[in-house]
Amino acid sequence: MAFFDNPAFIISHIQNSFVSGDDTGLCELVIVQDETSRRPVGINKSAWPWLAANAEEDDETELAHSYDITADSLGTRTRPRSDTAFKLDMLKKDKLIKGKVKTIQWKENVEMPSEEDLDALFKKKIVTKRKKDANTSLLTEQLDKFPSMQSNPFSEYAKFNGQTQVGIPTKKINIFLTMLPEGEREFPLSVCVTSNAKVSDLIGLTLWLYSCDNNAAFLSKSLECYTLNIAEDDGEPDRDFPPLDNRETISKFGFGTLALVEKVCPVETSKSLLVVKVAVGEGFSMFQVETLDIKMSQILELVLKRRRGMMNVDGPCYILEKLSEPGVTLDMDSTLESQGTFEFCLHREHRISSHQIEIDPVQQKGTVNKLLAKQKAVTYPMIIIASCDTIDDKTNAGRAMFRLTYKSAQNEFKFVDFESDRLTSRKIVQKVQQILDMRGSAVRTEFQSNKEKTKSKRSSMMFS
Amino acid sequence: MTGGGALADQVILATGGYDHTIRFWQAHSGICHRTVQHPDSQVNALEVTPDRQTVAVAGHQHIRMYDVASGNANPVVNYEGVSKNVTAVGFHEEGKWMFTGGEDCSARIWDLRARNLQCQRIFQVNAPVSCVLIHPNQGELIVGDQSGSIHFWDLRTDHNEQLVPEADASITSVSVDPEGSYLASVNNRGNCYVWTLSGPSSGAAAAACTQARPKTKIEAHRRYALRCRFSPDSTLLATTSADQTTRIWKTADFGLMTELKCANQRWVWDCAFSGDSQYIFTASSDNVARLWSVEGGDVKREYNGHQKAIVALAFSDGLA
């Protein structure tokens, strides 16, 4: 017991002893947290001026305020040894090994061996033909007994098995498997693992060892569902301590007993989860599909089922586009796999037929289109359409506007403006005009005659 | 030291390569039951001794003997005094002596009877030796070198003969069938040459050197051929190659019987038949050794565990 009246030093020393002596690393966490949140108390700068001076330095060092222990040595936990001592050690080891091994040097023979020797050693024998049934094979017999290769899903961790390795450091740990049924979990699995393995490798090795001897169908294939915890000698995992970090090498820990615990996996193994996201109007639908082979047409059906309101008996066509490539319609027969993405956008196909015009406006991201009064799908029966004209050709933006004039229910001519890229708008205007020309409609003629009238009115006004 | 008696109930499979370890496998299950460190040197060749107690490992400037059955991490004997890589190792069937070949352009005989090495012999050639094997008559060594020559060294008379199937095409491997009727060699151009051997059938002619008559040439592979081996029943010849396949030829007509290939395999460095010639092991630089069915050409077992390429394989079957 030390007799020392500097409380700060004693506190610091005690803290250090906890931190360096604790295998679990928990003290480290607690004490470091504690230290960073408050200043060391009780330093009377006038009484111990050297301490005050040192205190500034210490603030720079990571954890310890002890003067013996520096931050470096805390990491390696052993005093750094001199080079010579290390070299001597290695030489000693080598000598020990060499002592066990018989070494025979090649010796050049000056003279030829005697005739007797030659006869004894190098006499030729007559080679006889092999008898047919002399070729028996133990291997074939063994293979017949064990017809199929043991497909142990954890076989990649078999290489960490220390039992089969000779000459490299290993650690022996008893691991209790807490996920086993009542009768089995009391008995630990004795695992010998190579020291360079990480905690996650040890978990894999334990599962492999278990799968070798037992039916392990119930074990989850993914290592993420398991953690290793510090355990009591009877196998009960100690819940007060957090599980061992999977990335740490097990040579750091000195435990003889650990418990393998199955934790609730928040997400089922992501590989089997295929979620397709389809943006519809303002919202989106997400649903899970089983396989990548599903056709786009099936996905379309699923979306429409979800959004019943969009189903129209007359059947406006819906199309799917990739979210990343707007304007490119996807082939309905292609599979999900070929698309390379899980995010899509649903649109009504703009259809212009001699019967009607269907337009489903695309919602512009972030911009409010003042010209479009309402963002909703509309259908105009062709019979009321009077005209379709381009009104604004914004050459720089590559966009164009066109106006659809129609006769409303109130017998008035109304128009509605649309904006689209130049090509599309030109196509639309062209198509509508073609249809209107082919189908003579009462509305069109009325509209046109009205135009004439206003035109002539104007011109007449001018002259008068 | 007699062959076959002790441990005939054991199947020994060992592999080695660039990762400085030698792994012993349980052949029927694919499990590695023992790994031995082979520090400071790659493994060039592996051979099980006739008494099946040890495995000889040819490395850089040494040959180390490891115990098969015990858990001893260290070699039991270490043969030194050779410069450069030892590329081949083998034994007299009664364990009287060991032979090696190396990049120092020599083939050597090491006396195993006593530790005082009375009967050392050395045979010098003009190029690095890539392969050495013992004729089934136990009295001749066949040595292949990188200049493309195959030498017959009669150990009793010290007489030697030379064959050059293809000038300047480095010989990578030679094989003689267990009945002593054929000699096959493969080279770095992928070609396989076969000779018929006139084995001495009567006592008087037993002293004479074996004569070789060219039989056929097989354009076995489009890239380097690495290994050739006759099957124990002398009906098949296997050739392995850098073209990632192993081809099995029928000795009846030297036509192709099966091609063993699989997606992940890379260069196939070594191969070994099972005792009844129905299965064959291969070692590849994709770090995996495989067991194949000769008839079906499909993989039966895989041996996973090496961290780097496997270039050598040793197999000794048990008696059923």
UniProtKB/TrEMBL annotation, chain A:
Major location category of this protein = membrane
The Sin1 N-terminal domain is annotated at 54-125
One of its Pfam families is RBD_SIN1
Any idea where the Target of rapamycin complex 2 subunit MAPKAP1-like Ras-binding domain is? 283-348
Entry membrane topology: Peripheral membrane protein
Cellular location(s): Cell membrane; Cytoplasm, Perinuclear region; Early endosome membrane; Endoplasmic reticulum membrane
Residues annotated as domain CRIM: 136-263
Say yes or no: keyword Membrane present: yes
Give residue ranges for domain SIN1-type PH: 352-438
Keyword terms of this UniProt record:
Cell membrane, Cytoplasm, Endoplasmic reticulum, Endosome, Golgi apparatus, Lysosome, Membrane, Mitochondrion, Mitochondrion outer membrane, Nucleus
InterPro entries for the chain = CRIM_dom, PH-like_dom_sf, RBD_SIN1, Sin1/Avo1, Sin1_N, Sin1_PH_dom
Q: Which PANTHER family does the record cross-reference, listed alphabetically?
A: TARGET OF RAPAMYCIN COMPLEX 2 SUBUNIT MAPKAP1
Query: Which family is this sequence assigned to?
Result: Belongs to the SIN1 family.
User: What name is this protein filed under?
Assistant: Target of rapamycin complex 2 subunit MAPKAP1
TrEMBL record, chain B:
Top-level taxonomic group = Eukaryota
Q: What is its main location?
A: cytoplasm
Q: Where are the WD repeats?
A: 79-113, 218-250, 272-302
Per UniProt, the keywords (alphabetical) are: Cytoplasm, Repeat, WD repeat
Q: Does the keyword Cytoplasm apply?
A: yes
The cellular location(s) given in this protein's UniProt record come to: Cytoplasm
Instruction: Fetch the Pfam families from UniProt.
Output: WD40 (PF00400)
User: Quaternary state and partners of this protein?
Assistant: Part of TORC1 complex. Part of the TORC2 complex.
Function as written in the Swiss-Prot or TrEMBL entry = Subunit of TORC1 and TORC2, which regulate cell growth and survival in response to nutrient and hormonal signals.
Protein family: Belongs to the WD repeat LST8 family.
- The entry's protein name is Target of rapamycin complex subunit lst8
Gene that this polypeptide is encoded by = LOC106813260
